[in-house]
């Protein structure tokens, strides 16, 4: 099988809060049609799409329970940074947007630097710099 694209679908409690959070981080809107059930963003140079559905919509589609983000996480996204300084700037912007810093920026061996944050719904992201990448 050959697929044209892959994207993620995550659940949120409040679309307006989610839209505001990711817009303030500079994510590009992918909302081609107004919706009360979905907000969507395009991320990175490869235009990865992240859809955020209101919880009830995604629960219905899955026909089951959603992950309890207070106990774990369904996925950890990594956002590539160009430098350690950019990692530090991301931390400031995440805090200003209302995100939670899970682990502060730190080195992870020679040439690796990053931190983890969660959005207002508990979805976790890793902002990471890798020397030479």
From TrEMBL:
PROSITE patterns: VOC. InterPro entries: Glyas_Bleomycin-R_OHBP_Dase, Glyas_Fos-R_dOase_dom, VOC_core. Pfam families: Glyoxalase. Gene3D superfamilies: 2,3-Dihydroxybiphenyl 1,2-Dioxygenase, domain 1 (3.10.180.10). Residues 4-130 form the VOC domain. PANTHER family: BLR2408 PROTEIN, BLR2520 PROTEIN. This is Glyoxalase.
């Amino acid at each position: 099988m050959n697929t044209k694209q892959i994207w993620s679908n995550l659940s949120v409690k409040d679309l307006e809060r989610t839209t505001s959070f990711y817009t303030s981080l500079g994510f590009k809107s992918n909302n081609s049609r107004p919706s009360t059930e979905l907000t969507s963003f395009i991320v990175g140079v490869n235009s990865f799409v992240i859809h955020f559905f209101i919880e009830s919509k995604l629960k219905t589609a899955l026909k089951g329970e959603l992950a309890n983000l207070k106990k774990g996480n369904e996925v950890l996204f990594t956002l590539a940074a160009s430098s350690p300084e950019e990692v530090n700037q991301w931390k400031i912007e995440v805090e200003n947007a209302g995100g939670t810093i899970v682990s502060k920026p730190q080195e992870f061996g020679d040439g690796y630097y990053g931190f983890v944050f969660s959005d207002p719904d508990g979805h976790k992201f890793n902002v990471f710099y890798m020397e030479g990448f």
